[in-house]
Write a structure and sequence with these properties.
alpha/beta, eight-stranded mixed β-sheet, Carbamate kinase, transferase, 338 residues, two-stranded antiparallel sheet, 12 helices
Amino acid sequence: MKLFTSILAIATVFNLLLSGASGFISPASSSSPASSLSSLSLATKGAPENFSDVAETISDAARSLRGQTVVVKYGGNAMTSPELKAGFCQDVVTLQNLGVRILVVHGGGPQINAMLEKVGVESRFEGGMRVSSTDVVDVAEMVLCGSVNKEISSTICSAGGRAIGLSGRDDNLLQCVKKIDKDGYDLGFVGEVDSVNTELLNQLLDMGICPVVSPIGTGIGEEKDIAYNVNADVAAGRIAGELRAARVLFLTDIAGVLDKEMKLLPTLSCDDVNALIDDETITGGMIPKVSYATSAVELGVKGAFITDGRVPHALLKEVLAGGSAGTGSGEGGTYVSS
């Protein structure tokens, strides 16, 4: 906790300094030099004795990630708690100010469940995936691409960043085929991502804009007008892999990947993950997260984090606390590498 407080305080300092630097002025920054200095003084007041060490760690992380891409899957309690939501969007803006190209893929399970119940549409899960009839996809698209997507992009902009909300159907961003479940379940209109429009994403990222992507994909060829429901973890992992991102983070509602005694596994290789799925240590909704974390790493992503989105500023903590090595804070979550 002490390390995290140090990271947050010093990241605030970096943010304040960069917000006044040429080329990094935030759209929301209108404060005078005097007020900026006052804010800087407050941020550094009571700094820990190892302030310089933590500052150096953040500087190393920022230098190694400047101009690189970080993809984050955003969902769970981090989306439903107003405080965590505000903190997450502030983290996105801080990373943008540090020169990081950041892309958000969001879920919205609780919001979809609430709307399905409201309109009387039944749904169920098989193997961690929501079975998606036409009615379920219609509701999911309405919720994800409408209110949820625009709220996230708007909150990032209100915090001083730049963001644009996109559906996976926009400009054929996520082209999909019907997912065939390995256990023989008919999942309905659940999509397997066949291709990603990386040209569109790179154009936005090069402009300093954070794409906020809703995981509703589009069909291919004769099925081009079909909407597919795509698991947000699946979409984030595939997008990160196609972009050859430096990092991909999956924010979840548990501490990370746990063993059968419910103890955290802080680091895993891709081979470790596959073995844990085979022996059923990893089950249910955690399978898509770890499977696409490993797929992203195998496609060239340097490291994947499965981390607790209930921790305030989890995104900033994991991205900056590991320095140039990029292995995270070491204070929670699971880091997956090759």
